[in-house]
Amino acid sequence: MGDPRQHTAELTQAALPPLDSLPRMSEGRRRAGARERFFAGAEALGLTPEILRFPEGTRTAEQAAAAVGCELGQIVKSLVFLCGGEPVLALTSGANRVDTTRLGDLLGGAISRADADGVREATGYAIGGTPPFGHARPLRTVVDRALLAYDSVWAAAGTPDTVFELTPDELVQASGAEAADFAAD
Ligand code: 5CA
After folding, report:
1. Distance from the alpha carbon of residue 79 to the mean position of ligand 1, in angstroms
2. CATH (domain of 53)
3. What ligand 1 atom has the least distance to the C-alpha of 113?
4. Statement: residue 6 has pLDDT above 90
5. Distance 60 CA to ligand 1 centre (A)
6. 145 domain-assigned
C-alpha cells in the first residue's frame, strides 16, 4: 500500500469524465423545465392541462396514439414551417401529411420545413415535444380541419414523453388558430 491520499486522488480522477464531456444540464432536468414552462403557458391561456408522461416516449404521432390508446387522427402534430422566412405553426392531424403547396397558398408565401434549431428558436421547445400553444412568442397558427371532428384530441406538452388531452374548441381558442384544409389527399 502506498500513500492512501495518493490512492484516493487517482481513483477520483479515474472515476470522473473530462469536464467538457458533461452535459450542462441533465435531460431529466431539461424536460422538467420544459413541462413547467408549457404548463405555465397553458395556464396563462386559461387552461389547466393534465399532463401524462409516458417513459416509453410519445415523440411521434404513432407513439403518442399507442401510448394513450386513441386514434392516430386524434393526435395533434405541431409542425413548424417557414413562410417567407417567418415561422408558422401547422397543427396537423396525426393521420395527415401537410401539402406544402396548399399551405403556401393559404398563408401567401413559399413554405419550407423548419429544422431542429429553427423549431426550438421559434417555439422554445424541441421537435417531438413542441406543444400547440404556450410558446416563447405567439406564432401564426393554422389548424387542420380534420382535428375538429373529434370529441377530444391529444397534443405534446413540451417534451417528447408527455401529452395532454383537450377539446378541439380549446385547441382553437388557446392557439388562436385559423381552421383550414392543408393536408395532402
Ligand atoms: N409528440 C408527438 C405527438 S404529439 C409530436 O410532437 N409529433 S410531431 O409530429 O408534432 O413532431 C414530430 C415531427 O417533427 C415529425 O412528424 C417530423 O415531421 C418532424 N421532424 C422530425 N425530425 C425533424 C427534423 N430533423 N427537422 C424537421 N422536422 C423534423
Report:
1. 7
2. 3.90.960.10
3. 27
4. no
5. 6
6. yes
Q: What is the pTM of this model?
A: 0.88
pLDDT (tens digit per residue) in 169-184: 999 999 999 999 999 9
Which residue lies with its CA nearest to atom 22 of ligand 1? 127
Concatenated DSSP letters for the chain? ---HHHHHHHHHHHHSPPGGGS-SS-HHHHHHHHHHHHHHHHHHTT-----EE-TT---SHHHHHHHHT--GGGEEEEEEEEETTEEEEEEEETT--B-HHHHHHHHTS-EEE--HHHHHHHHSS-TTT--SS--SS--EEEEEGGGGGSS-EEEE-SSTTEEEEE-HHHHHHHHTPEEE--B--
- Residue 5 is assigned to a structural domain of this protein: no
> What residue ranges line ligand 1, CB within 6 angstroms?
58-61, 64, 75-79, 113, 115-116, 127-128, 130, 155-156, 160, 163
Asked, for residue 61, whether it belongs to a domain, the answer is yes
* Centre of ligand 1 from the C-alpha of residue 99, in Å: 15
